[in-house]
Give the backbone structure.
Amino acid sequence: MPRTPDPEADDLDAVPPPHPVFHIEQALLGALLLEPRHLNDVTGIAPASFSTAAHTALFATILSLPAPDPVEHATTTKWLDQVLAAARDQARGLSALYLQTLIQVCPSARHAPAYARIVEAEHSRRRLAAAAQRLMRTARDISLPQRVTTSLAEAEALTAVVDDIAARFPPHAGSLPRTLAPPTATHHDEEALDEERLLLATSTLHASSVGQMRWLAPGDFTHSLHAGLWQCLTALTRRGTPVDRMTVLWEAQHRGLLTTGARPRELLDLLAGTSGSPEHWGERILQRSVLMTAHHTGRRIEAYTDDPATTPYQLVTGSRRALADLSAVRTRWQHATSPTPTNNPTRTRATAAPRAGPPRTTAPPTARNSR
C-alpha cells in the first residue's frame, strides 16, 4: 500500500549540502558589504566566478555601484539598500536578511583577497570541467559531419582553458594529481573490427603501403590480435622480408599470437579478404583512435575536476599530461591526412604523382563513411 507521508517530516535531508566554496563566497560578499573598500584588494574574479545566481548578482551590483562614504556606511544602511534593490533585478529571491547573514558569517573583512583567491580557484575547476565535458560530447556526437576537426577544435579550447588556469596558478614540482585516471574504454563494435580486418588483409597484399603508414600505431586498434598482426606486418616490412599470408603467420607464431586462442587457419582466412586500399582503412582506424583518445582525455580531466582534493596546480599538471596523449595522436592524424610532399616545388597537388600502392578508393559498401 502507498506510504502515508509524515506531516512532521521534510525533504531537507535529500538536498545535498553546498560545496565549501559556497560558504567562502558568502564570506567574501559579506566582507565587501561590510567594508566595500576591500573591493580594491580583490582581483582575478568576475561575477561569473560565483557558483549561484544570487551571489553573481550581488557581486555584479557591488562592482557597478559607487563605493559609499566609510563614515556614512558605518552608521546607515543606505548603500546596502541600494545594493539589494539593484541585485533583486537579477535575483528576486534576495532579501535584506540574507545580506545581513552574509555580513555575519564573514570572519574578517581583511581576508577578502584570500577568499577571492579561493573563489577564483573553484571557478577554474568548473570551467575546466565544462570544457572537458564539451570535448567528450563532441567526440561522441555521430551527427557531426566533421567529428575529428570539431573534436580537435574543442581540444584547442580546452587547452586554452588549461593555459589560462596555469597563468593564474602556475604549477610547481610535485603537483601531480592523486586521482586515479579512469580506465580506457574499449569498443569492439563490428564496424571497427571489419575495418581492422580489411586493413590487415589489404596490407598483406600490398605490403609496399605499410612502410608509408608510419602514422598508424598498434594502440589505434580496438582488438589486441589485430594490433599484434599490424606489428607483424610492420616488422616484416622493416626487415625487408617478403610479405604474404604465410610469412605473417610465421611472424605471428614468434610473437606469441597463436597462444592467445587464435588458430592458424583463422589467421590465414582473416588475411585473405581484401577491399579498398590500406591507406583508406588505416585512416578510418586512426580517425576512430583520435575520437576515442579525445573522449578519454575529457574523462581523465573530468575525473580530476570531480575530486575536491585536487588543487588548481594539480589540475594544470594532470590536464596537460592528458592533453599530451591527444596531441600525439593528432600529430599522426595530420601526417596521415596531409598531402604527400613532392620533390618538384612547381607541381601542384592536382598534378602530383600518386602514392605507391593500389589506387585509393571511395568508401566501400562494407563501411560507412563518417569522416
Summary: DSSP finds 13 helices and no strands in the chain.
